[in-house]
């Protein structure tokens, strides 16, 4: 990140720290990315994003939030049927 002046990272589609990574391992990975970015000449923090439509379903023991949570948040019973 420092070498190529990368300012943002998007994790998606199977990009994991390792198979069955824990939440701690994800945090450690992102913190390491941030450390590299902050050590650049300008010291600007990176923007980090993750493609997690249903929650982090590839994080070991993570809670998965199905689309039904979003549907319930509409409070439109007819829409749910």
Automatic annotation (TrEMBL):
Keyword Hydrolase (UniProt): yes
Top-level taxon of the source organism: Eukaryota
Coiled coil: none
One GO process term, biological-process aspect: glucan catabolic process
Transmembrane segments: none
Residue span, Glycoside hydrolase family 3 N-terminal domain: 2-75
Record's protein name: Glycoside hydrolase family 3 N-terminal domain-containing protein
UniProt source species: Anisodus tanguticus
